[in-house]
Amino acid sequence: MAMVSTLVKERAVVIFSKSSCCMSHTIKTLISSFGANASVYELDEHPEGKQIEKELRGLGCKPSVPAVFIGGDLIGGANEIMSLHLKGQLVQLLLKANAIWL
Fold it and tell me: Would the pTM of this model clear 0.85, i.e. be above it?
């Protein structure tokens, strides 16, 4: 879990993705639409992608991508992010993590 822990400390929003995953693309687009500048790691293009994916599965990410961390906390995958968005709670999480400003 050391690699994931280190990477999620870099920015307020970190997304682990795969370049060919349509749900990953959707989540990246949604989060950036609020003005958040997330660190995005494309696991199929990252030299340590397989190790990162293994760590994400160890954290309970199934499927492993997209995996979204906000403020250093694992929020979840596409289902969790879309649910938070539909409930109006995603923006509040982004604000609390100083990922966006009003």
Answer: yes
